[in-house]
Amino acid sequence: MKFLSILLGASMLAIASATSSLSRPNIIMILTDDQDVHMHSLDYMPLLQKHLMHEGTTFTRHFCTIALCCPSRATLLTGKAAHNTNVTDIITPHGGYPKWVSEGHNDNYLPVWLQALGYDTYYVGKLFNQHDVDNYDEEPAKGWTQSDFLLDPYTYQYENAHFSRNGGKPVSYKGQYSPDVTTEKMHEFLDMALDKEEPFFLGVAPIAPHANMIPAPLEATPPVYAKRHAHLFKDYKIPRTDNFNPDTPSGVSWVAQLPQLNDTVIDYNDEYQRCRLRALQSVDEMVESLVHRLKAAGVMDNTYIFYTTDNGYHISQHRMHPGKECGFDTDIHIPLIVRGPGVARGVKSMAVTAHSDLAPTFLNLASGAAFGGDDIVLENAPSAVPRLADLDGGVIPLLEDTQPSDSTKTEHVNIEFWGNAAGEGKYGFHGDWGVINTTVNGYVNNTYKGLRLIGEGYNLYYTVWCTNEHELYNVERDPGQVRNLLSSSVLNGLTASSDLLRIAGRPLAAVLDRLDALMMVLKSCKGDVCRHPWDSLHPKSRSSKVPVVNTLVDALDEQFDAFYAGQPKVRFDKCELGYIPSSEGPQHVSPFGKGNYNAANDDQVRLGHWSEWV
Ligand SMILES: *[C@@H]1O[C@H](CO)[C@@H](O)[C@H](O)[C@H]1NC(C)=O
Ligand SMILES: *[C@@H]1O[C@H](CO)[C@@H](O)[C@H](O)[C@H]1NC(C)=O
Ligand SMILES: *[C@@H]1O[C@H](CO)[C@@H](O)[C@H](O)[C@H]1NC(C)=O
Ligand SMILES: *[C@@H]1O[C@H](CO)[C@@H](O)[C@H](O)[C@H]1NC(C)=O
């Protein structure tokens, strides 16, 4: 594989003709809706395990960067953080398909780029929320050779789906099971794609295991499953992890106010998750039929299959009703499984990856480059295709010999969210849901920044909320994220030698100063800054006297204590429902060595100045 990268200096044409067919592989992306890792949904998909997990690599540290369908899909399809797409909600004014279009993304996203690289592009299933039976033909989704989109308000009606083929009039599939219809359509598109010479991209986005949404009056019920799966999982229960309906409330903001769930709700929630697992069986069967079809066509050795979802899901964890939109791992830690030529089989990758990495990774594959580094790809691609510097994600190291990948690609994931949160299911509804208005029906003040940071000897989640509440979890020692190290009641219960406080060998305050500064960089980052955020704090210098900082551990060197303590801290002036930077406090860090941080602040160092948040 090494030789491929040498060819990158040559033109695209030269690459295409000089390398094997591998340089133009087919790419298939299966995108489920709201699938969890935490409740072990993957364990209940035997065909997925057989055909993808055993034959490919499971990325065990994959995250979405915003735990809500439409914004997460926008990030996935652009390779840009939500603060750069500014598609931050499922409906207008801050999100939904109309916002996607008005922000200009419909002219400049993955399928458009893939077509410019000579790919045929196909998509079946759900694209975005608020892509509906009224607006579908006003500004059709661009970039697709063939498409068949689910449209609102029928998207989440499992037995009353409406699809629009290539921008045509919506067709009702009343009485048919939506995920099975998606599978049938996938096969139609496969037949077309396999008939042609061009390499293809195929997106398959069934709605399972999302809630079933019935309009007028609006109701979110457990997902509907196909009758053939009704007998399954009767004894399944949601894992009783320590974050399952805990005796002591966890989290901050609205989460900390939640009452404990009673047995009626717990029973309902267990059945809710059983319904989700059953709904996923249709997807499981789809995976097998897909692999069989590719094998029969003889293209399996030139095709990558990516299996993932838009965001995770919680049910009963932290006392929450079914839903997403939180920064806990239940909601952001999601499946990513990749099978394809050169991808290690039956392996778990420890690389830290995010949804913003998928578009760059697809482009990298499609542009015929080798993979595994940042500074590759696209330099010779047509102008319609972005350069890596235009995207916020990086290229996921897929190949066997790039595992485990280098640590600079493996440390941080920038998490963000704006707006309110909503519960789903019978008890998750707050009052009258005749209309969706989370100010009235949901949990307010769910705007926050999050930083997931994983490296050798540390595994952390740090958040700053719009209420200026803070959280820090030592996920290594507290995987359920129930012991917020910035809560005085948690801290008071710990001894100085507690395992929870062991973070890369430095005191909590020193760690916090670094996390906060890194978050300050990431919350408004673009391009290379998002990939290499420490460089903004420690600009690379030719002088060998300036220490190199690439990771938290590098930054934790005592010589930087005063520097980090003096950085402005992330805070909000106000809880907004969308990305309004003027309400989001300081925006900039002071780079090291520039001498412009305020040394007078050094006195505030250590727990002293953090304690005002606790
Ligand atoms: C993001 O969009 C909102 C409207 O949804 C707008 O008010 C805001 O100014 C935009 N933010 C940026 C940074 O452009
Ligand atoms: C359990 O909680 C639900 C939701 O708050 C409530 O509607 C129900 O009445 C409660 N059941 C019992 C037996 O207390
Ligand atoms: C939601 O309800 C709030 C409070 O009543 C109101 O101010 C707001 O305009 C409503 N939003 C929408 C989109 O209807
Ligand atoms: C939401 O946050 C605002 C600050 O922006 C605060 O004034 C308000 O009390 C909070 N509301 C709730 C219900 O916590």
What keywords describe this structure?
614 residues; alpha/beta; Alkaline Phosphatase, subunit A; 2 domains; ten-stranded mixed sheet; four-stranded antiparallel sheet; 19 helices; disordered N terminus; disordered C terminus; binds 2-acetamido-2-deoxy-beta-D-glucopyranose
Name the CATH class of the largest domain. Alpha Beta
Strand content: 5-15%
What is the correct CATH architecture of the largest domain? 3-Layer(aba) Sandwich
Number of domains: 2
Helix fraction bin: 25-40%
Q: Can you give the mean pLDDT?
A: 89
What does this structure look like?
The structure is a single chain. The protein is α/β, with parallel strands linked by helices and 614 residues long. Helices cover 26% and strands 14% of the residues. It has 19 helices and 16 strands. The N terminus and C terminus are likely disordered. Bound molecules: 2-acetamido-2-deoxy-beta-D-glucopyranose (4 copies). One 2-acetamido-2-deoxy-beta-D-glucopyranose binds next to loops.
How would you summarize this macromolecular structure in one to three sentences?
The protein is an alpha/beta fold and 614 residues long.
How do the helices and strands line up, and which of them pair or pack?
Elements: H1 2-6, H2 12-18, E1 26-32, H3 46-53, E2 57-63, H4 69-78, H5 82-85, H6 96-102, H7 110-116, E3 120-125, E4 146-150, E5 162-165, E6 171-172, H8 178-194, E7 200-205, E8 212-214, E9 219-221, H9 263-296, E10 303-309, H10 329-332, E11 336-339, E12 347-354, H11 358-366, E13 412-417, H12 438-441, E14 448-455, E15 458-465, E16 470-474, H13 488-492, H14 508-522, H15 528-531, H16 534-537, H17 552-555, H18 561-565, H19 607-610
Parallel strand pairs: 1-7, 1-10, 2-12, 3-4, 3-7
Antiparallel strand pairs: 2-11, 4-5, 5-6, 8-9, 10-11, 13-14, 14-15, 15-16
Bound molecules: 2-acetamido-2-deoxy-beta-D-glucopyranose (4 copies).
One 2-acetamido-2-deoxy-beta-D-glucopyranose (NAG) binds at residues 437, 439-440.
Keywords: Glycoprotein, Hydrolase, Signal
Catalytic activity: an aryl sulfate + H2O = a phenol + sulfate + H(+)
InterPro entries: Alkaline_phosphatase_core_sf, Arylsulfatase, Sulfatase_CS, Sulfatase_N
